[in-house]
Structures are given as structure tokens and as C-alpha cells.
Amino acid sequence: MALSRVPGDENLYVGGIFTLRRRSALENTGITHIVSVLKYDFKDFEDWDKYGHLSIEVDDVEDENLLGEFEKSGKFIEDALKSEKDGKKGGVLVHCAMGKSRSVTIVIAYLLRQYPHYTVSLALALVRESRPMAEPNDGFMAQLELYKDMGCPRDIDAHPKYQRWLYQREVELALAAGMAPERVRFEDEEAQDERQNGDKEIELRCRKCRRTLATTPYLVTHLPTPPKTQIDPMTEPISSLTESLPPAPLHNACTHHFLHPLSWMRPTLEQGLLDGRLECPNPKCNAQIGRYAWQGMKCSCGVWVCPAFSLQKGRVDEIVKRGEGRPGQGRIRLPPAMRGGKQNL
């Protein structure tokens, strides 16, 4: 199974590196362009210059960033398939070492980009019709799901979800070395993607001085651990840097509100410590309102949140408001520092 045609109207193939030595097969299938998804020196292959070539030098490991290559590879494949040579449309071979993980990931990303109604699982099933061995590693599958969730943007680098994902990788590397990250991404200073928060909006205020500390877009929701008699995959630790889990119903088990890092935490977080106290940013108050721990923290409900920036419910007031209604009513009242977009929380 050196060369497999992806089902559909396009002349798109996926395979392993040994496919490149089958010159007759490449000619018979009309291959004009090749996408190589591995680190390799191709100088020994004959007639290499006759093909348009895109090289993506990545390893087949779960923490490799292939997501950042999806637009470049997708545009290359699209243009190559539309090209014509000797009156015939172009053909594209996407290959890695075995034609199982990296190359299949690039093909799926192309399908998601070209056909918005495709899901990741549907695109993978399509490839498997002709190549049953197709199996991207778990890390690449997660990147494909994120790519789909982002809407397969043409400018991946600028997308807030991609920026958040890159930052999460930085944090994970720092924590693996037993250190706090070198930089802190303050969510209220970054471009935000649209989030569905429902009709309930929340404002958290310091109970002592009434200073607004956070509003709905910057809260990290989490689900309490179910009773031990239930088996639920959602009991795994969650990261406060990724997209939050679906909003949980109100419950009394949690004694913490978890937040994304906000700019009022800057003086504390930029000290470079792994954990410590969070104090009210009002200089006339400075009440201790919570704690932070880059290495994570277990909520009283049993869910582990990592990294964790928490406010104790006993130290803050939760104001619940409705998002719908007449203009000016039922909206979160933003603190002066957030009005006009000139400053942040």
C-alpha cells in the first residue's frame, strides 16, 4: 500500500517515502506536486526537480506543532490540484515515512479547509476507505480538532485560540522543568474569540472594597467530580489555558472561582514564583482574596485545575446578571479600568 488515492474528485494521494522510488506509479497517477512531511534529504531521488515540492520538517511525536503548517500545506495542495500540465490537472502526493500519521494529518487538514461540512472523524474515515492504516497520533488529532473549532482560518498565527494553545505549550515546558513560565499571557490584554456564555453573566467583586475582579469571559468553568459509582472521562484534570468545559450547573461543592490570568495579577505573577497569594488590586484594600499555583490546584469539588488562579468564594461576591434585555439593562457593569478599552482589569 505504497500509494493510496483519497476518495473524491481530486487527484490527491497519500503514501510513504518509498513511494517516491516508484517512478512509474507517480507518472501513471499524474503526480505533479509532492508534500513531504518528515525530515529527510531528497537529493538521491531521481527526477526530483520535475515536481513541485513542499517540505514540512516535523517528527511523528504528539507534542510536535503541525497545526501551524495547515494553511501553508492546504494552500499548496489547493493550488497544485488546480494547476494544469499538458492539458491535465495537477496531482498531489502527500507522504511521510509510512503514510500513517503525519501525511494523513496534512490530508485531513486540507479536507477540513476545503469542505466546511466535514468533521475530523468524517475526513479520517474517508481517507481510511483507501488507506485503512491511516492513524494520526493523539496529539495531531487534537490539533485537527482545534483547527476545526477555529474555523480553519487562513491566518492561523493571529487566531486567539492558536495563540492560547501556543502559550499552553510554553507553560507545560516550563512546568516540566519545575519553573514558572518566562512570560505571562494576561487574557484581558489579548484579542478574544467569540465565546458562548449563555444568558447568564457573572461579575466577581472583592467583598471588602467592592472592586470588580473578573467577569464572565475570564472565568474558567469546571465540572465537579461525580460520585465514585459513576464512570465519567470528565474527571481528568483540566487546563485553565484551554477552552473551558461546558458551563456546570450551580453547585455548593466548590469553594473557589477559577480565572484566566488577568492584568491586575501582573505584580504578583511576574515575580516568577510557582505559587503564592492573590491580593485585591485596590491599593487601599489589599485583602487576600485567593491563591495561584502554576503547577495546579485541586478544587474542593475534586477537579484538578492546572494552572490555577483561584478566588475564594468567601472573599468575593458573585453578582449574577442576565445578558438579554433593553439596552443598558441586564449587562455586566465593567469597572472604570475596562471602559473605553483603554485599560484592563
TrEMBL record:
The chain positions of domain Tyrosine-protein phosphatase read: 4-153
Q: Which GO molecular function terms does the record list?
A: protein tyrosine phosphatase activity; protein tyrosine/serine/threonine phosphatase activity
Q: Which UniProt keywords apply?
A: Hydrolase, Protein phosphatase
Identify the stretch(es) annotated as Disordered.
Answer: 324-345
EC numbers, comma separated: 3.1.3.48
Q: Which GO terms describe its cellular component?
A: nucleus
Pfam families given in the database record: DSPc (PF00782)
Ranges for domain Tyrosine specific protein phosphatases come to 71-132
Record-annotated active site = 96
Q: Does the keyword Hydrolase apply?
A: yes
- PANTHER family attached to this UniProt entry: DUAL SPECIFICITY PROTEIN PHOSPHATASE 12, DUAL SPECIFICITY PROTEIN PHOSPHATASE 12 FAMILY MEMBER
Family affiliation: Belongs to the protein-tyrosine phosphatase family. Non-receptor class dual specificity subfamily.
Q: What is this protein called?
A: protein-tyrosine-phosphatase
| Species assigned in the record | Mollisia scopiformis
